[in-house]
Amino acid sequence: MKISVNKLVSVDYELFTDGDDGKLELVEKTTDERPLNFIFGAGMMLPKFEQNLMGLQAGDKFEFSLEPEDAYGNYVDEHVVELERSIFENGGKLDETTIFEGNVVRLNDGEGNRFQAAIVKVSPTHVTVDLNHPFAGDALHFKGKIRDVREPSNEELAEFLGGCGGGGGCDGCSGDCSSN
Questions:
Q1: pTM for this structure?
Q2: Domain's final residue, options 86, 112, 130
Q3: Higher pLDDT, 60 or 160
């Protein structure tokens, strides 16, 4: 079966970025126990990543690169911001097991959206965080193999997409899952 929209795709891959020495640096790799599994076309993956896999089938190998604008964008200096230290305190104390330079934490904005931030600096009054994606500004180089392509089960749709899958994929759901 070839990769197409709404198929469950399982891949093994290695992800490289350009190292400081001009050589590719391995930054991420799947394992036999933990392949990358996703529903193709559901917005779970970078669009250009999916574009490069379209039409492949189990056993096919792939190797391609994505420029920053097709991956996580360019690094934006303005996304490094200083926040009041009190935001990170609980009862007037900073949790130093979580808030320390180099750690990545989950933050919520005023609208409840969750995102990751890297702690850059902790001072007596502020915490400086980098809101850029860790791979912002990097070209991404993928090398791998398609492990499996198949129709997802209703349970897998619910697991990957939340609720009923949002597209009428299970138990007669029309996309409005509030009635199920």
A1: 0.79
A2: 130
A3: 60
